[in-house]
Structure formats: structure tokens, C-alpha cells
# Entry
Amino acid sequence: MAANIYEFNVTDIDHTPHSLSEFKDQVLLIVNTASQCGLTPQYEGLEELHKRFNSQGFSVLGFPCDQFLHQEPAEEPEIKEFCNTQYNISFPLFSKVSVNGEKTNPMYAYLKQQAPGILNSQKIKWNFTKFLVNRQGQVIRRYAPVIKPSRIANDIQKLLT
# Structure
């Protein structure tokens, strides 16, 4: 098992490989997203957090996921265009991932193991589940999909100071 989040490699929405070590020493909010979900307007709040705290060493990382009622059916170019035109997203977006099941992205397996859900469940229940990671790459907390990004601001601020 990985020692921290920085050990994982991911692919961005333009299919360019990256190491999460590029985000070393930053506070991160990792979110599985979808563009046709009732919670999709959370993109706005995620962007607000990113803009508010980015200069202090914080980033939102968005990972589109189509595992919940086929609410992210688009391919990456369409997802990127949607996020840019509808929400003017400046935080990094990555390629679509599976967060549950046999094809679970290894980073998501790690996140779920480090911060299980209710009743110690490893399963992610819906889009916009959020994981807060400190500057050392340790998963601090998991937030349910219905938790609005604005409610996470104080926890982010504490990790940045």
C-alpha cells in the first residue's frame, strides 16, 4: 500500500500522464465528478474553493466518473468543454475513472482505504464524494456527496495554516 497520495500516477483530461507528486506539499480536495448529476452545480463551489485557496498551496482535483446512473456519458473532450463553458473551471481535471468495482482506479482504492465511509464502507456511494488530503499526502477526511464545497472551507483553511 502506498505511503501517501503522491505515489500515484494519473492521466489528465487531455490524456497526458502525471505523477501526483507534482502536487507535493499542497492541500488537495479530490472529487469524483459528473456533468449530468443533480449535484453537478457543485462544480461552482469547487471552483470557488480552488480560486480562494490556490495561492496558499491548495488544489481541487476533479476525476470524472460514469459509475452512477451513467451521469458522465461524455468523452474527455466534451467533459472538458462542459466544465470550461458552464463553470469556467481552472482546477485540474483528469481522465474518467472507476471508483468502485473490479476496475477501481488505484488512487481511489487508496483513498477509500484511508478514509472509509459510513459503517467503515469502502464503497463510494455517489458522484461528488470528496477526499481532503494534507500537505504530507495523507487523507484527512472523506465528505459525503451532499456536503457542499463551501462547508469544507474551514477544514481546508486549518490545513493551510
Observations:
- The longest strand covers residues 27-33.
- Strands lie at 9-11, 17-19, 27-33, 58-64, 130-133, 139-143.
